Each structure stands twice: as structure tokens, then as C-alpha cells.
Amino acid sequence: MQYIGANVPQAWAAGSAFMLTQALLGFLPDAPRNKLYVDPSLPKWLPDLTVQDLRVGKHKLDIRFWREGEQPRSR
Predict the structure, then answer these.
(1) DSSP-derived 3-state class of residue 20
(2) How far is CA 2 from CA 7, 38, 39, in A?
(3) Are 52 and 68 in contact (CB under 8 A)?
(4) In terms of Cα–Cα distance, which of 21, 22, 34, 39 is closest to 61?
């Protein structure tokens, strides 16, 4: 039995890190067409970010994003 107001994990909390990452990197996967669109916007406090084992359709990707001056870059 759960009590109202008890500290029960919420589904949105479990996915919030993934949603933040998706928003920062501007991920838009299109698995049926084997494409991944990105439009990164890394804040100054996050100069470098690597995503490993990202799966889009049948593909598995490792992508690194970094800042050079004011412009985010990816490879």
C-alpha cells in the first residue's frame, strides 16, 4: 500500500536526463529513413559531450559534440 505524498519514483523523473540530452543536442531521429538530425546547443557550462551506443533503426552510433568558441561542433 502506498501513502499519498510518499517518495515514490515518478516516470518523468526517470526520463528527465534523456529528455535534457535530447533538447541540448537537438536530436530528431528518423529510424525508417536511417537518419538522425542534430542541432546542438551546448551551454557554456557543458563544453563537451559524448553519446555512445546510440541506436537509430539498425544503426549504432558514437557521437561527440564540443564547443569551439561560440559554435557547437560534432563528429
Answers:
(1) helix
(2) 9, 41, 42
(3) no
(4) 34
What radius of gyration, in Å, describes the C-alpha atoms of the chain?
Answer: 16
> pTM here?
0.68
Q: pLDDT tens, 16-66?
A: 888 888 899 999 988 888 888 999 988 889 899 999 998 888 889 899 999
Helix, strand or coil, per DSSP, at residue 68 = strand
Which of these, 68, 60, 67, lies nearest to 42 by C-alpha position? Answer: 67
Query: CA-to-CA distance for 70 and 11, rounded, in angstroms?
Result: 35
In whole angstroms, how far apart are CA 31 and each of 35, 37, 58, 72? 6, 11, 8, 24
